[in-house]
Write a structure and sequence with these properties.
The chain has about 270 residues and is an alpha/beta fold. It contains nine helices and eight strands. Strands 2-1-3-4 form a four-stranded parallel beta sheet, sandwiched between helices. It has a four-stranded parallel beta sheet with strand order 6-5-7-8, sandwiched between helices.
Length: about 270
């Protein structure tokens, strides 16, 4: 395969396309396809829209992944995939059919049910706001209000984990563990099971920090990214975790989703 070749994947949905997008991106991680564009087409409700999407996919030599609940639209995309010789992957169809065959029930076929504004939705919005407002220890008082507190050295994925978990409805606060900073006393006032310590292999963290410095136009051999500094920080963090008696998760080579899954099991 030509390493410079571009690739195109269309996400077609009669709602926001989040389900298909998640499946496509999870699969994409298993391949070395750096020049891949994933384009999401949302709220598709007409045959003309579908035909235009399929023709674009044909021109660009890609394929389409879709979540369409209306039978007529599902038929159109199948017909167009045959006409244009495009692969179309039905993300939701087989699962819906399994429900029909197994439970002898009929689906509502209403687009966007997953994203209706309900109590869960507003709880997630509130949780995301909480995570953003309390990123990197901005307000230590929030420790007492949080559902979960993430502790760890710089660049161990505390922020993306906080946001990911917030989308699950958890109010997450993350706090940087630095030898020069005295840990907040509030950490001793909450249940240790509400705290998760994050650690990582030192050489892996050195690489992450070096890349971060490069992206900022700074020397990648700064003290911040030295092996000695990283080892000292991680050793200090481990001593803090031990004193708090909190669970510890090693995030080395783990995707955010995988680490979040371990945290959800832990709490």
């Amino acid at each position: 395969m030509n390493p410079g070749q571009s690739h195109f994947i269309a996400i077609c949905s009669d709602s926001v396309g989040e389900t298909a997008d998640a499946v496509v991106r999870a699969t994409l991680r298993q391949f070395e396809l750096p020049n891949t564009e994933v384009k999401r087409m949302m709220n598709v409700r007409s045959e003309d829209e579908l035909i235009a999407i399929m023709e674009e996919v044909s021109r660009r030599g890609g394929f389409v992944a879709y979540t369409l609940v209306q039978p007529e639209l599902r038929e159109v995309i199948k017909e167009e995939s045959v006409r244009l010789n495009i692969r179309a992957v039905d993300i939701m169809g087989p699962m819906m059919q399994a429900f029909i065959d197994t439970f002898n029930d009929t689906p509502k076929r209403t687009p966007g049910l997953l994203h209706r504004l309900d109590e869960d939705y507003f709880r997630r919005v509130e949780a995301v706001e909480f995570a953003v407002n309390n990123d990197d220890g901005k307000d230590v008082g929030a420790i007492l209000k949080a559902d979960l507190v993430l502790l760890g050295a710089s660049r161990v994925s505390k922020t993306p984990l906080s946001i990911f978990l917030a989308h699950k409805g958890l109010k997450v606060m993350n706090y940087p563990v630095v030898p020069e900073l005295t840990p907040p006393t509030q950490l001793k006032e909450i249940d240790a099971n509400k705290i998760i310590g994050l650690t990582i292999e030192p050489t892996h963290l050195v690489k992450i920090r070096s890349e971060r410095l490069k992206s900022m136009g700074l020397p990648d051999d700064a003290h911040y990214a030295s092996l000695e500094r990283v080892q000292n920080e991680l050793k200090y963090a481990q001593s803090l975790f031990s004193s708090l008696g909190c669970p510890v998760i090693d995030v080395t080579d783990k995707a955010i989703e995988e680490t979040a899954g371990l945290i959800m099991k832990q709490i």
